[in-house]
Design brief:
This protein has 228 residues and is of the alpha+beta class. It has 2 domains: 6-98, DNA polymerase, domain 1, CATH 1.10.150; 106-221, Cytidine Deaminase, domain 2, CATH 3.40.140. It is 42% helix and 15% strand. It has helices spanning 15-22, 29-37, 46-56, 61-64, 69-72, 80-102, 110-121, 158-167, 188-202, and strands at residues 128-134, 140-148, 172-178, 207-214, 219-221. It has a 5-stranded mixed beta sheet, sandwiched between helices. One of its GO terms (molecular function) is metal ion binding.
């Protein structure tokens, strides 16, 4: 039995036509994703298939964004091509969100920093350490990834952080890293590194204004907690 392509579905299962008639906002997440994959399998339409896929991740697109090809391949009808199509679409959505945040001219609060870095860090399976470079008016000069891996491996990169700040004439910096575990509470290593960078930056008249620990849905701010 051949799988049905999108033109062979029942009228109520034709999301392309529905989108043309009613607009994208009228479609469910499963219907939008079905348009991307184009066909289901021999037993179900793409809409039905995507409903099962979404159910497997609690209908959470953020969770779906963390899936890899092997996760999709558990479902009949999913090969590398369909998996990568969905992964690419979700990545574009993340980049759009990041671009919108980047257009903000100045950092006013820890929430601004979180919104800027959440799209970059929320789905990563490992820790990444970044520095945000700001001018006197708290406008973003640049954001620079310092390292990948656990925070313990970043303590030797204090000179790298300060070199970036000096090269780009930043007068304020913010440290940012993610906790893939979902727990934003700082570790002893997080606290030690923060103090190390603060003292080193101070000798160069550069102010460490915050250290943000990012997870998916929440964050920890050293500044908000009165540690910096």
């Amino acid at each position: 039995m051949e799988k049905l392509n999108i033109n062979q579905w029942a009228a109520e299962d034709r999301p392309r036509e529905k989108m043309m008639q009613k607009g994208a906002e009228a479609l469910s997440d499963a219907e939008l994703l079905a348009i991307l994959i184009g066909s289901g399998n021999t037993e179900e339409s793409a809409v039905a298939l995507m409903q099962r896929v979404l159910a497997a991740c609690n209908n959470d697109l953020s969770q779906l964004g963390k899936w890899e090809v092997r996760d999709f391949s558990r479902f009949k009808g999913f090969g590398p091509a369909k998996s990568i199509t969905i992964m690419a679409a979700l990545e574009l959505g993340k980049r759009r969100k990041l671009q919108e945040r980047s257009e903000r001219t100045a950092i006013r609060s820890s929430a601004d920093i979180y919104e800027l870095f959440h799209p970059l860090l929320c789905d990563l399976p490992t820790e990444e350490f970044w520095v945000l470079l700001l001018n006197q008016a708290a406008k973003v000069i640049d954001k620079v990834r310092i390292s990948r891996g656990g925070i313990d491996q970043t303590t030797a990169d204090v000179r790298t952080i300060l070199r970036e700040a000096l090269l780009q004439r930043a007068v304020q910096i913010v440290l940012i890293h993610n906790h893939p575990s979902g727990n934003p509470s700082p570790s002893h290593a997080d606290r030690s590194l923060t103090e190390l960078v603060r003292k080193a930056a101070q000798t160069m008249n550069i102010r460490l204004t915050d250290h943000i620990i990012v997870t998916d849905g929440k964050y920890y701010s050293f500044n908000d907690e009165g540690i910096i």
